[in-house]
Amino acid sequence: MGDMSLKHGSKNSELIEIRENHSPSSGLFFKIRRQLHSELSSFQKIEVFENDFFGNILFLGGLVQTSEKDEYFYHEMLTHPAFMSHPAPEKCVIIGGGDGGTLKEVLRYPIKKAWLVEIDRRVIEVCQKYFPWLNESLKDKRTELVTADGNEFIATTEEKFDVILIDSSEPVGPSSVLHGREFYRKLKKCLNPGGIIVAQAGSPVFHLEHLKEKARLLKNIYPIVHFFCGPVPTYPGGSWCYVFLSESRLPRDVEQTPPSGLKYYTTEIHRTAFALPGFMKDLSD
Predict the structure, then answer these.
(1) Same domain, 7 and 135
(2) 257: exposed, middle or buried (C-beta count within 10 Å: 0-12, 13-18, 19+)?
(3) Which of 61, 75, 131, 279 is spaced 20 to 30 Å from 137 by Cα?
(4) For residue range 230-276, what is the model confidence (pLDDT) as tens digits?
């Protein structure tokens, strides 16, 4: 899916250049003002870098996960299509999402409870220091933080949810199981009637074959499968794909007024995001 390399600047420059390679001949680069954090946790390498334009950037396993500048593109599009398509969501679980951006968006709604299930406690602790929105979200009385494998949590929980959000990293390392058939079968059993699942799915440019494989897998489990897209400047290709799953609800049935304070998501964006380009049309129903 990609890898990262470091290139030190010239003698006249204090900046380090970081490159995230998306193919053998293309990728992203960042000029880094400072490396704020670096460690190898029990699960992955966790790094935070400071960039003059994007602010603090979180890397997990050498891949960009979020930045202060553009986090809202991804977190709003992962969260609000599900919540806006449900008339009265009360319980939500986020699998992954240790940076807290998705939790921040979920808590904009008058829900009763939100579970954040993150396998790597160190991701939570590092992001509490460098991404200030997480601390406020964890202080919310509706939040329950669970340090656990998301697959095991879903397999053993007795809770039923109105919205399930899969905010996993790429299908490598500790997140690989969150992309498989058995995991999605387990998710289905955890939904309340009328419940909705939205999962991040990958880049329509670099991961198209993976998206096609995922579409075939999901259509054998869920009667409603709709992929949709939105921009994320720091992700491969600058555009990202998500998938909306349900047994009864359609993603174009907008049921609510969006919360105030959003930067990207609108009801117009919601409807147009599900209009896929020609090369992706066979992904959805």
Answers:
(1) no
(2) exposed
(3) 61
(4) 999 999 999 999 999 999 998 877 877 899 999 999 999 999 999 99
> Where does a domain end: 25, 41, 64?
64
Domain shared by 141 and 198, yes or no: yes
Say which of 167, 253, 282, 285 is annotated catalytic.
167
Question: How open is the CA angle 171-172-173, to the nearest 5 degrees?
Answer: 130
Q: Is 99 a catalytic residue?
A: no
pLDDT of residue 179 exceeding 90, the answer is no
Question: What distance in Å separates the CA atoms of residue 49 and residue 45, rounded to the nearest whole number?
Answer: 13
Q: For the domain that residue 271 is a member of, what is the CATH number? A: 3.40.50.150
The band of 6, judged by pLDDT with boundaries at 50, 70 and 90, is: low
* 17-75 per-position pLDDT tens digit: 999 999 999 999 999 999 999 999 999 999 999 999 999 999 999 999 999 999 999 99
Q: Are residues 212 and 276 in the same domain?
A: yes
| Same domain flag for 39 and 163 | no
Q: Where are the alpha helices (DSSP H) in the chain?
A: 71-84, 101-106, 121-130, 133-139, 150-156, 181-189, 208-219, 267-273
Look-up of token digits 């420059």: 13
| Chain Cα centroid distance, residue 149 | 16
- Asked if 37 and 97 touch (Cβ cutoff 8 Å), the reply is no
User: How far, in whole angstroms, is CA 210 from its chain's centroid?
Assistant: 17
The angle at the Cα of 151, spanning 66 to 86, to the nearest 5 degrees, equals 70
Are 25 and 129 within one domain? Answer: no
Instruction: Output the pLDDT for position 181.
Output: 82
